[in-house]
Amino acid sequence: MSHDTQAFRERYRAGIHPRYNVWLHGGFVLLYGAACLAFFIGGLDDVKPWEWLVVPAALVFFNWGEYSIHKNLGHHKTRAGAMFYKRHTGDHHSFFVAGTMTWDSARDWRVILFPAWLILFYSVGLFAAWWLLSFVNANVAGLFSTTMLAGYLSYEVFHACEHLPDSHPISRLPWIRHMRRLHELHHRRDLMQTHNFNLVFPLMDWLKGSLHWEPLEPESPMTRMQHDVEIARSPDQVLAYASTATRWPEWHPSSLRVDGPAGPLPAGSHFEEDIHAGGRAGHLSWDVTEYSPGRCWRAVARGTHGLHLELTYECESTPTGTRFVRTLDYGFDGLGMRIANWLVMRRKIDRESAESMAQLKEMAERTIERPATRQHDLA
């Protein structure tokens, strides 16, 4: 994560009202939308075959509206759309950039979902359209309004799915995965004003020539393991200790020997490690990719048996010290090792990772001195 993006996220989160509740926000939108849908659907009666043609026509109309508003108001500053432009380009595209597309906590949905009042404003227009069309044909009025409101709700749902963590099961559904990729490309600075404005179905992007696709680099299936522990030391102290790779054998049961520089390892550092993990001995060659003192440390490695992995340490200040989060993503190139990992190894590695957290806490609190507190002279 770039420094600028992280700094913006921290400022944005600090500006969210303490009483904001994302579940009330999202729940109101879905419940109000469902109530309106029930009203429109309840007015349908003996729908003729030709009347059903309103549904695809309304879907195309909604797709065009989504495209036009997103492109012309969300990414071009106008007097009429100043609020939308600020919230979309100013906030949303600063909070999420290509490569950093996922939220960290549910409160981050504040920058994903539309304001709750917008569905009220939108529904007023739909009720007006329903009332006018009812003078012509009640079924046409109900089908049109139902389809347009369903489009709004699907936009909200799809957009939220497009910012889910990569490991979430919904993220791997075929169509969601496809649209997530298009949306991530849209969040690239060089593409956000010109390409991929549809979020549910890219019809208008295709028709208007603004559809842009780049396949992801092929990757092996990865196993993710995440463990955390509370440590009664400061984030700077904890991360400095944990990112000193030469001390890993002190607290991680899988680490046998580390050959590399002493002390916390900055980005660009390289070291070697002998391991015994998941019941197998092996060797890893490591490269550190990120080190933000007191906040985040990340490294990648290639090893024997076709092993490749990414290890991330994150620290968060708590009233009692630090919440330390260790995230391990690993995979194997060969089919045989993938099967062995699925059948046996991943459970062993998970136990070893959980054990390492307990030992890290014990060693850190035993070997790291607490910061000296200021003494105030009493006169």
How would you describe the overall organization of this protein?
With 379 residues, this protein is of the alpha+beta class. It has 2 domains: 3-207, no CATH class; 223-367, START domain (Alpha-D-Glucose-1,6-Bisphosphate, Chain A, domain 4). The chain is 46% helix and 18% strand. It contains 11 helices and 7 strands. The protein has helices at 3-15, 22-42, 54-72, 82-95, 116-134, 138-161, 174-186, 203-207, 235-242, 248-251, 335-367, and strands at 223-231, 255-259, 270-277, 280-292, 296-303, 307-318, 321-332. Strands 1-7-6-5-4-3-2 form a 7-stranded antiparallel β-sheet. Strand 3 (270-277) and strand 4 (280-292) form a beta hairpin. Helix 2 packs parallel to helix 5 (116-134), helix 2 (22-42) runs antiparallel to helix 6 (138-161) and helix 5 packs antiparallel against helix 6. It starts with a helix and ends in a 12-residue tail after the last helix. Residues 374-379 have low confidence and may be disordered. This is Fatty acid hydroxylase domain-containing protein. It holds the Pfam family Polyketide_cyc2. The chain crosses the membrane at residues 20-44, 50-69, 111-133.
